[in-house]
Amino acid sequence: MTLKKLLVLVGLLIVAAAVLAACGGAATTPAPVVEPTKVPATAVPTAVPTVDPAEAIKPIFAASGHADASAEAFKHWDDATANPDGIPTSCAKCHSEAGFVDFIADGKVDAAVPAPGVAFTCTMCHNDAADALTSVTFPSGAVIENLGPEARCLTCHQGRESKVSLDGKLAKFGENLDPDAVPAPYKDDAGKDVKLGFSNVHYFAAGGTLYGSQVKMGYEYDGKAYDMKHQHVGGFDTCLGCHDQHSLEVKVEACAECHDGAATIEDLKNIREPSSMQDYDGDGDVAEGVAFEIQGLQETLLASMQAYALEVGGAEIKYDAVTYPYFMGADGKAYPNWTPRLLKAAYNYQVSIKDPGAFAHGGKYIIELLVDSIEDVNASEKLTTKFDATTLTREDTGHFDGASEAFRHWDAEEAAPYTVPAGCAKCHSGSGLPMVLAGETIPEAGVPAGNGLMCLTCHDGANFPALIAGNEVTMPSGKVVSFGEGAASNLCIECHQGRASKVTVDDKIAQFPGAADAPDTVVAAIKDANDKDVKFSFINAHYLGIAAVWFGTDAQGFYEYEGKTYNGANTHPAVEDKAGCVGCHDVHTGTPKEELCKTCHGDVAVDDIRGMSSTADYNGNGNVTEGIRTEYRSLRDVLYVEIQKYAKTTAGTGITYNPDVYPYWFVDANGDDKADEVDGKTVAYSTWTPRLLKAAFNFNFVRKNPGAAVHGGKYIIQVMYDSIEDIGGDVTKFVRP
Fold first, then answer.
1. pLDDT at site 36
2. Which segments in the chain show pLDDT lower than 70?
3. Coil, helix or strand at residue 62
4. Are residues 102 and 87 in contact, defined by beta-carbon separation less than 8 angstroms?
5. What is the mean pLDDT of the chain?
6. 3 state SS of 300
7. Could you list the residue range(s) of the whole structural domain that residue 656 is in?
8. Contact 364, 215 (CB under 8 A)
9. Which residue from 68, 412, 532, 722 puts its CA 20 to 30 A from 609's CA?
10. 698 lies in a domain?
11. CA distances for 341 relative to 58, 316, 374, 393, angstroms
C-alpha cells in the first residue's frame, strides 16, 4: 500500500469516527424504545489500518550508520575546492548510492559522483542488479562465489589492500630488497620520486577477516599457513546471519542461545570456546575472551614496531588510530623511514585495528597475522631490544588447528579449491562426520574446507551438548569394534582408525596375477580396463590410526602374518569411568591426562611406563625396566634396517624413508639414506615385491602412531617381530609377547 493510499484511508477513518462520535455521545435522555418489528443494526467493526513492512523498516534503517548523512564516510568530499569532481570513482563504489548501483551493474564506476554526498537509501540494495549479485571480487583478486544477500555487504566491507597489493608495491622498489633497509625511491610515470610509505587496508573490512586466507587481506608471510573462512554454526556464518541488515546491530540475543552471559556487545568480547584453549598473547590468562587475546598481541606488536622503528629505521614511530596516515614520526607527520619488514607488520597491525569485530569475524586468522608479524619484526638481526616471540601461541591443538596440513591440504587444488574431496571429508572437515553418522552420503563434489572440527561435528545440535555417539565402528578391514554402547570414544575412532588394513594389502597383491605365489619377485604392472598401466605400489595406512593399535587383531589394521596369533583389544581399565580415548585425553585439546597416569604408575614419564605384566626383554638389549615405547621402537629401527637390506639385495634397488614427504618411500641407489633426485625431484620407490610391501606397510603405520606404546604396545611388538622375521631378519635375541 502506498503512503498516499494509506493517508486517504486514515482520513476516511477519522471522518467515520467523528460521525460515530456525534451520534453516540453520552445519553442525557431515555433511549427510544425499539419497535419489535425492527431488527437492531449490526455494529460495524472499526477497520485497523495495515502497515506496509517496508514503511516499518524505514525508521530502523534511518537510525543506522548507512543512513547517517552527517558521517565522515559521506561528507569527506564535500569541499568543492579540494574535490572539484566530487567523490572519485575509486571511492564512490562504497561511499555513494549512485556509485554502488553503477558498480554492481557492470563491475565498475564509470564517473565520479557529484558532491556533497548523500547517505544510502532503500533502493541502493533493493534493485534488480543487487538481487542478482552472487559473487564478490576482493582486492587480492580472489573471487568468492555462490553468495546470498551478503554479497551486497562484502562488495564494500572487504578492505582496499591485500598481500598481493603489498607485494606488488614492494616489487616496484626492486628485487631482493633488504628487509631492514629503507629502499631508495623509484620514478613514477611522471618522473617523480616515490618513497615507500604506509598502505592502509581501509575500514570495517569485516569480509576480509571473515574469509581469511581465501582472500588474503592480511599480509601472509611466506612459508606460513593461515585459516580460511571462519566457521560458525549454520545460520550464523554470514553477515546477515549475525547482523540485522537494516539497523546493522548484532543479534546479541541470538548469540546468547549458545554463549551464556552474552547480553551486550561488550559481553561478546569475553567469549572463548573450548576450541580456543591456547594462551595466544602469552600473558598467562587462558580464560579471557579472544578479543582480549588479540588486544594483548596488538600491544606486543606495536611495542615491537616502536623498538624496531627507532633502532633499525632510525626514527621514532607513534600510532594514532583516528588520524591519517596513522603512523607518525616524532614531529606528528607521516613516519618517513619505512623498511619492508616494518611496512608488513604495520599493515597487519592496522588490519587488526580497523575491524573492531575481528575477534568474531575471524579471530584466529587475526591472531596468526599478529603472531607472525611479531615474530618477523623480532627476527631482525639489527634489532637489539627484542620481544621473545616464543612465549606466544599461534595455533590451536590438533582438531582445531585450522592452519594445519590436515585441513589446508586441498586449498590449492585447481579443480575445486578450498574443497575437501568426498573420500577425505569425513575426517578432514567439520561437516563430514555428522553426515556419515546420520546415514547421509557425502556429496561426490566434496564439502567446503574448514578450519578444523566444529562443535556440531561431535555434538548433537538438537540436544546440545549431547554427543552424536554411536555403538559400533567398522574398521577398514571390515571388522567391527566398540568401546561400548553409546561410548563417547566411539566417535573418536570413526576417524582415528587408519584407511587401510591387512585386507587392503592382500587384496592389492591378489590384483596382480602370480604375485601371491612369488613374494620375493618384483611385481610388474598390469593393464586396467582403459589399457593404462597400473603399478604395484606402496599402501599408506594413513595417520594416527589409534583404533588399529588399541583393538589389535580385533581390528586387523596392521598386516598380520599367517600362522601367527596376535593380541586383541587393549585391556587397560577405564579412566574416570570413561572407556578408551576420552578417559585418557582431554576431549577438546586431545592432551593426555598425564597426571592421572601417575595415580597408578607413579611419578614416571608416559614414555617410560612399563606395565607390571611386561617383564620380558623384548628388544634383547638386556634392559627389562625401560618403557614399552623404547622396546618397540628398538624393534622398529631393526625392521627399517632389514627393509633397506632386503630392498637392495632382493628387490634390486636401495630404499629410504621420509616420514614427512608422501609417498614416504624413495629410491636410494647409493645407500646414503637420502632420497635420490632427478631434475630436482625425489624419486618414489617403485621396485616393490609383496614381501617388501607388507613390511613397509607395517613400518609406516607404526611411525604414524606415536602413542602406540600406550594404545597397544605388546601388539605392536608382535607386529614388528613378525615383520623382521618375514623379511629375513634375525629375531633369535628378541622376545615375542
1. 42
2. 1-49, 51
3. helix
4. no
5. 91
6. helix
7. 606-726
8. no
9. 722
10. yes
11. 48, 16, 11, 21
